[in-house]
Amino acid sequence: ISFLLRSTTDNKADSTVVSNVVTHADPIASKGFAVDSSTSPFKLFEFERRVPKADDVFIRIHYCGICHSDIHQAKNEWHNSRYPMIPGHEITGVVEQVGSSVKKFRVGDNVGIGCMVDSCLSCNSCKKDLEQHCPDTCYSYNSTELDKVTPTYGGYSNFITVKEHFVCKIPKNLPLDAAAPLLCAGITTYSPLRQYNVGKNTRLGVIGLGGLGHMAVKFGVAMGAHVTVISTSESKRDDATKLGAKSFLVSKDEEQLKSVKDSFDFILDSVSAPHDVAGMISLLKFNGVYCIVGAPPKPLEIPSILFITKRVIFTGSLIGGMKETQEMLDFCGKHGITCDIEKMEASPETLQVAYERTLKSDVKYRFVLDMLNSFK
Ligand code: NAP
Ligand code: ZN
Ligand code: ZN
């Protein structure tokens, strides 16, 4: 284990000297895989990461999950894409250098970075640990730093420099590869379940058994809920059962849906493409909650009568704040929860295959890129 020696003669913020580890002094030459437009393939992209400032942590990226949001953004489906874009916001890695005021981390720590890399830290949302609702949130990619100019680049890359506040500790018992998707798929499903007190008496419906959906099942089961998976794919029935779901319904089968009408307390909709949300709302009990986390590009069409007659609450949820993300990771450490992954090295070719297969829901249940071995 490398130990940390602080130089006492040099008063520069990032004067950390570490045995066997090079201390970076200049902007750090970095590599990633980027797209140049909504239709272009991935290409190798060289750029620079900043040297850690006093409150920054410099991380060697080991793994990065492929979230469906990466695909929406790479393809400009949300109409806000900036190029060149290096996607990736399910990042795990190891700390290589820390700024002088960093308290939480030491060189060699296993860490994670999710969708955010900065925010104002002073607005009402930030003060309530809801940095994701800050008007100035800086996302990990397809975004800028707080200066509104410097582009951010995501985790399909070898290094990243991030403000300490936006870095999480990965519990020691969790492997860095299968933990990576916790940083988005994990927190995005954990947060709404916690917010609506999902627990022992909850009949929970999870729509879509993908990256987010399979984590929602694991969390729902760990929290004691009665979990039903509603999927388009009959072939996922056995997996749903293995994940701990008590029942499984095929959404295209009207008879199966009829059998669970008016039965759910809470539905989490994680579907990435346009689908029949109105039909799903009718599965809720009186006063039931429908929480949508999936973000298909097209607007929803829902008859108002569905809300009126059963006083249904329709809501959404956006990732989770930094405090809750750490809470989720600690919960995963305690319960031994990780993601089911398919690991691959990143290259323009493998990324294309991974995107195509994710679009076909042909992945169990998250692709994770081995960034450590992708630039050899
Ligand atoms: P994913 O792994 O591709 O899973 C999506 C699942 O949706 C698929 O596995 C499939 O499940 C189902 N599905 C796909 N096409 C469908 C269709 N036409 N009709 C019905 N069901 C369909 O995607 P993900 O990474 O979990 O992300 C899901 C969505 O959440 C994306 O839109 C993403 O952008 C969004 N997201 C939101 C947040 C947030 O903060 N709110 C965070 C992360 C991601 P079955 O095979 O079981 O039907
Ligand atoms: Zn994501
Ligand atoms: Zn703020």
Automatic annotation (TrEMBL):
<dbReference type="InterPro" id="IPR002328">
    <property type="entry name" value="ADH_Zn_CS"/>
</dbReference>
<dbReference type="InterPro" id="IPR013149">
    <property type="entry name" value="ADH-like_C"/>
</dbReference>
<dbReference type="Pfam" id="PF00107">
    <property type="entry name" value="ADH_zinc_N"/>
</dbReference>
<dbReference type="Pfam" id="PF08240">
    <property type="entry name" value="ADH_N"/>
</dbReference>
<dbReference type="GO" id="GO:0016616">
    <property type="term" value="F:oxidoreductase activity, acting on the CH-OH group of donors, NAD or NADP as acceptor"/>
</dbReference>
<dbReference type="GO" id="GO:0008270">
    <property type="term" value="F:zinc ion binding"/>
</dbReference>
<keyword id="KW-0479">Metal-binding</keyword>
<keyword id="KW-0560">Oxidoreductase</keyword>
<dbReference type="InterPro" id="IPR013154">
    <property type="entry name" value="ADH-like_N"/>
</dbReference>
<dbReference type="InterPro" id="IPR011032">
    <property type="entry name" value="GroES-like_sf"/>
</dbReference>
<dbReference type="InterPro" id="IPR020843">
    <property type="entry name" value="ER"/>
</dbReference>
<feature type="domain" description="Enoyl reductase (ER)">
    <location>
        <begin position="37"/>
        <end position="354"/>
    </location>
</feature>
<keyword id="KW-0862">Zinc</keyword>
<dbReference type="InterPro" id="IPR036291">
    <property type="entry name" value="NAD(P)-bd_dom_sf"/>
</dbReference>
<protein>
    <recommendedName>
        <fullName>Enoyl reductase (ER) domain-containing protein</fullName>
    </recommendedName>
</protein>
<comment type="similarity">
    <text>Belongs to the zinc-containing alcohol dehydrogenase family.</text>
</comment>
<dbReference type="InterPro" id="IPR047109">
    <property type="entry name" value="CAD-like"/>
</dbReference>
